[in-house]
């Protein structure tokens, strides 16, 4: 069993490791909030739904107002609970329809890294960078390594990199990733 260290909470990390749609949801939520908050989100959502994992069809079918309320309860799942609740439901509907309700089907038969990247970029809420980071996360931590996955992930796929959530395996690497991000922002401003 894969051990992840993305949420900073053993139960939330265990859910991410065993439930592919929770991992995908955490990646979707990973914007404009700390990484740990984003990747804890799936566990909070599942708990508030009274479930032990996130079933894409169940999430997609959930009443949108009630689902937004799940996101809005204190503490809120995300900084933008209403819009992110809608995005998660769109992602869930897409996975249910196109991948037989199993997010792992997105990557289990991808023949190449380029194909995997293309599939991820087609997901609602996944742009180029988020898709590349997800390819890197799958390759580095989940063992999903179709031919060319590192190239498809771009700089995020580099061995020894400390650029993204894909590189966080403990508290030390989290600090290294944060330092790299600060340096990249500083260099961009200069």
Automatic annotation (TrEMBL):
<dbReference type="InterPro" id="IPR011257">
    <property type="entry name" value="DNA_glycosylase"/>
</dbReference>
<dbReference type="GO" id="GO:0006281">
    <property type="term" value="P:DNA repair"/>
</dbReference>
<dbReference type="GO" id="GO:0003824">
    <property type="term" value="F:catalytic activity"/>
</dbReference>
<dbReference type="InterPro" id="IPR017658">
    <property type="entry name" value="HhH-GPD_base_excis"/>
</dbReference>
<protein>
    <submittedName>
        <fullName>Fe-S cluster assembly protein HesB</fullName>
    </submittedName>
</protein>
């Amino acid at each position: 069993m894969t051990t992840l260290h993305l949420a900073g909470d053993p139960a939330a990390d265990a859910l991410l490791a065993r439930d592919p749609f929770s991992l995908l949801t955490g990646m979707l939520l990973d914007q404009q909030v700390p990484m740990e908050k984003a990747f804890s989100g799936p566990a909070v959502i599942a708990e508030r739904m009274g479930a032990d994992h996130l079933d894409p069809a169940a999430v997609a079918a959930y009443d949108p107002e009630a689902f937004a309320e799940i996101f809005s309860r204190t503490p809120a799942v995300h900084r933008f609970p209403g819009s992110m609740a809608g995005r998660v439901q769109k992602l869930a509907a897409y996975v249910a329809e196109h991948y037989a309700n199993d997010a792992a089907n997105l990557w289990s038969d991808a023949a190449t890294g380029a194909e995997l990247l293309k599939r991820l970029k087609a997901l609602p809420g996944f742009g180029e960078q988020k898709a590349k980071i997800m390819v890197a996360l799958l390759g580095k931590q989940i063992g999903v390594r179709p031919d060319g996955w590192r190239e498809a992930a771009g700089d995020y796929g580099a061995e020894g990199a400390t650029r993204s959530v894909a590189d966080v395996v403990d508290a030390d690497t989290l600090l290294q990733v944060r330092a790299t991000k600060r340096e990249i922002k500083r260099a961009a401003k200069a």
